[in-house]
Amino acid sequence: MTIRAGFTDGEICWTDLQTSDVVAAKAFYAAVFGWRYEDVPTPGGRSYAQAFLGGDLVTVIAPQNPQQQAAAAPGQWNVYFASSDARELADGLVHAGGSLEFGPEPVGGTGVMVFFAPPGGGTTGAWQAGSHFGAGRSGEPGALAWAELLTPEPQSAVGFFQQLFGHDVTEYPQDDGGRYTTLMVDGAEVAGIAAVPAGAEGTLKPGWQVYFGVSSVAEAVAAAVAAGGTVLIEPDEVEEAGTIATLEDPQGGVFSVLEV
Fold first, then answer.
1. Are residues 22 and 111 in the same domain?
2. Total domain count for the chain?
């Protein structure tokens, strides 16, 4: 278990889920991870749900924006990299080969949000902390344990993040001849980048995949199915990672579970 009080630039500091049905998503994820919630109203009359483990905030379940609603988009998990200067980051995106999608946008006094895409796509968030620094726990059951970007341009994406955040990298050869690259901050691996696995195009789409820790993948899968979820990739033992499975919530949000 890791209790967090802040994040270094280039670490993944936060996740959130944008969904068409916040109430239903709350019930589903509570069944899988045991989260408790505090609802926070917005000026537009809607509300989002802060999810807690014990007294620590670990993520948020939020309503979709009007564009996502109009397109009947499935739920989407987002990841955010810590940034000490969101404006400077946004200004450097194009030079690094990426594109700005949203922001920088202050979110009250809690922080500043940016959404961007690296070469090859994959909507990515950055967060400049205000009163909210990010998740209070990581690497334990119910908290974020890992995240990876699946992309058609893995090497370009690696170079982009290195230029944007100064990440060091470690590369692991794969059986198919490809490479799995991890981004590193201060000697610690903080995220992965890889090509979409061959044969998985209909199951895993380009973009960020989030992994939440569980004490038992089998039990988490059973709880997800009982709560209306779908198993996209059955539990499997992955070298260097452990037992994982990939699931879809009833509103289409895709996530993975990892035994920790």
1. yes
2. 2
